[in-house]
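Journal club prep, notes for RB
We'll compare a predicted complex against what the paper describes. Inputs for the nicotinamide-adenine-dinucleotide case:
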Amino acid sequence: MSPSKVSTISWDSFHNTVDGQARNSKSKHRGINPATGEELWEVPIGNQQDIDDAVKSAQNAFETWSQTPLEKRKDTITKFRDHYMSFADELIDLMCQETGKPRQFATYEVKGAAGFFDHHLALDIPEERIEDDEKVLLTRFTPLGVVGAICPWNFPIILCLGKVIPALLTGNTIIVKPSPYTPYTTLKIVELAQEIFAPGVVQAVGGDDKLGPMLTTHPGVAKISFTGSIATGKKVMAAASGTLKRVTLELGGNDASIVLPDVDIKKVAPELVMGAFQNSGQVCVATKRIYIHEDIYDEMLKEMVNFTKTIKVGDPSSGSLLGPIQNKMQYEKVKTFFEDSKSHGYKFAVGEPEVSRSKGYFVQPTIIDNPPNDSRIIQEEPFGPIVPTQPWSDEEEVIKRANNTNAGLGACVWGKDVERAERIGKRLQAGSVFVNSWEKPTPQAIFGGHKESGIGGEWGTEGLKSYCNAHVLHTYKSNCNIYVSASPAHAAKDCGECDTGRYHRTQHTWLISVEPHKHHMPFVPQHKLEPTHFSANWKDDGYHVHTHSTGGVIGTILVKEGAKGDVEHIQQVLQAALKPTPANTSSNQTPDDENDRWVKKGLHALQTDKITDTFDLAEFMTFAHGANRLDSDAPARIAYPGLHKDHKEKSSKHHFWLTYPTKAPNGAEPGSRTYGGLM
Ligand code: NAD
């Protein structure tokens, strides 16, 4: 332990963690070091009570953790990252023992997890805002609750933290169930997490395969994130259906690698081999079928064989490139692919038909040269260091061959002609396709399978959503339309057609009308739609502001459609701005000037309060003056929306139609008319 570390962790005893406490059990089991066949430490076998307690604790912790602001959650996860990294050396040692991985790859996995932290910590939980005139739609992604993480044995740290980090970031709490074959690093990481997180936020219950179904059927678990085989994935999905849990299933693959004729053979051959044999083939996205163009088939195979012969297989500290198969069950399964290939007489380009006995579960990397399409080695995922190659000549045909599988996790295309390689890549039915690289999943992008390789995916921004419910807030606006109208002083006197009595306009009158947006009134508001009008009437002592809720306003300009704010608020703003003023306005001002001042003041208040922001006051004033002087000889200066005296057509003494010469902001087509007039 480095001197800076403050921890009570012991590295030779292991326990489950429930509600922040170590949890042991009478039943124990032991993992096996696959490089030596020796038994490792005892670990408890969790039971239903442990799962029930863990779920209860996770539900309690969810109450607080889900409400903790994202930035604070990130701070806590960052502390966890740093704490985890300070134990990298101990974790590398442990991983070498539980998986048998060569030390450099154990190091890569342990330290590579920092990249998973860092990438996720830089993400924000997506949010989407759509606004139209009527409403705002806010789509947020909120945590699901308690997540059950069921993990496999091939990458016990990455595939565990690859679930823990996004689940916690999005506000969920999580219970991890490690594979019975590789419980050690997971139990220690979760133990370390207890020094950072509140009890119940991250827990681990390991044991045997009975625990999986306890999680998948538990009514208190909201989601299962499962990584494992297709066969178990189907069981998980069936079990989760009883409580309609969300599931993410990361399952097996049967990745095809297509090699175009223009590749640099010497350069690509070792890459193809590593794509197939990385982690001794125990990678869901390892290359599992290699299709080489017939023009270069023999030469490429020869180079691959040569490189494969240089690969050293051995225990973690031997400087080997490949370690053992992780467990006996898988070792026996991989051997059946050798037996099957041998019994059918397939050609072993490199490797022996008999897997030689060793202390550990070691298997030499093996290439099967051109087995038939219906062979087991083509059809199934061996999950070990044995891979078939086949030649191809026709692009369409090889794409069909590559896609002819129930799996769809990954695929590769190799070629100097990148355009062609990408074109082929786009047609491969797989969640992640790699061009000129073997399969290297990254936390930067969602990782998930097509077809039977899985449901959903994890990592990347999209992956965050898999730990969330979509939550849409539809907020309808109580916005308004704001109109301003103008009446000249003399109009009220002789208008026989209007209910002038209601307004008693004996002076120049200006109106600002605020209308509930839902009315969607065009240009001229109609009677009886309950708008709220504000009028300022000139009296001897100045302008007085009134509100009234009925009545029509004619000769009106729409200042702002869908103004922000509700009627009441706008009313308050206007009333504050338009208090009756003493008749002290400078004596040389004409009533028209007073009108202008009044309206400017009112509209300025609306702008200041950000209720309306787009109208052009000068333009409005021009219009208003023009409307005001409709039947005077003064030159019409109507400017909005392009209305002009020339476009006025009187229908009666005080009423007229206004014709739009161009498309108007209210949607009116050129040539359409709207009613205007003076009262
Ligand atoms: P597995 O399916 O046997 O086991 C995975 C996990 O499921 C283990 O923790 C196991 O205890 C648990 N489990 C077993 N029975 C269960 C049940 N009925 N309900 C719930 N959980 C149950 O897989 P494995 O052998 O550990 O892993 C190898 C497989 O995983 C390969 O097929 C490989 O391709 C796949 N894999 C996929 C990905 C991916 O991301 N797509 C990654 C790694 C491995």
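Talking point for the session: The first helix runs from residue 48 to 65.
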